[in-house]
Amino acid sequence: MNMEFTPDQLQRYHRQMILRELGAAGQQKISDAKVFIAGAGGLGSPAGYYLAAAGIGTLAIADNDLVELSNLQRQIAHNTERIGMLKSDSAQSTFKALNPEVNIISITQRIIAENVAELIRDFDIVVDCTDNFAVRYLLNDACVLMNKPLVSGAVAGFKGHLTTIIPGQGHCFRCIFEEMPPDAEEPSCRQAGVLGAFAGVIGAMQAMEVLKLVTGAGEPLKNTLLIYDGLKSEFRRVNAPRNKDCPVCGDDPYITIPGC
Ligand SMILES: [Zn+2]
Question: What is the distance in A from the centroid of ligand 1 to the CA of 189?
């Protein structure tokens, strides 16, 4: 193994490098990893924060919204002085300040069918931290077609969802929720409300799933939907096997995306 860490890196990552499941080899994998985070909001803030802190080599943050005052009770990558700034730029500054070693790329394009393949092509893992159903389905389909692991999280009210999709090894998002709900135009937490700490739980768990995938530690949440009830402090695991009739990962798929 050819692993050389500077004295600063050894100090910065000491607490995670002494974990038996990680070690120096795990840290090297984290440093080599390229992760794409869609959304710099209530989930993307904690997910990006922890991934930057852990030393992920390259982190892309995609968001085309501007920071608003009403974001700040949950979107902790931003702050009051940054109202009006692009969220992806704000998150980039925050994560860079935490860990200057991480190559952080700010992406301000909206994710659409025409650019999704190009945007995620160079990344090992995609993290869905959006609150937009159209983008959620698009990322699922693109990741399945491009064979990229996807960590998908969602929150609304006091209900949260988390699942890890590894194409070829089990289910995808459409195996569980085949079609977009008809009222899916509006972001869910805009309608239902959400507490920042609650979104933080799911976002931090998304970072955990990424770090497990990168290092090989533990078991990713594949073929499983984890449902978190924040009021009861209850986690429920629901078996979510691959659906052979799934329109993107089934036996006879028909969904295609240009470039994927
Ligand atoms: Zn599927």
Answer: 25
- C-alpha separations of 241 from 138, 168, 232 in Å: 20, 12, 26
Answer whether 0.90 is exceeded by the pTM.
yes
Neighbours of ion ligand 1 (CB under 5 A): 172, 174-175, 246, 249
Residue 81 falls inside a structural domain? yes
Domains of the chain: total: 1
Give the tens place of pLDDT for each residue, 129-140. 998 989 999 999
pLDDT-derived band at 1, boundaries 50, 70, 90: very low
- Rounded Cα distance between 46 and 113, Å, is 27
Helices 196-215 and 44-54: crossing angle in degrees, nearest 10, is 40
Q: Rounded to the nearest 5 degrees, what angle is found at the Cα of 46, between the Cα atoms of 155 and 224?
A: 50
Which CATH number does the domain housing residue 111 bear? Answer: 3.40.50.720
Q: How far is the CA of 175 from the centre of ligand 1 (A)?
A: 4
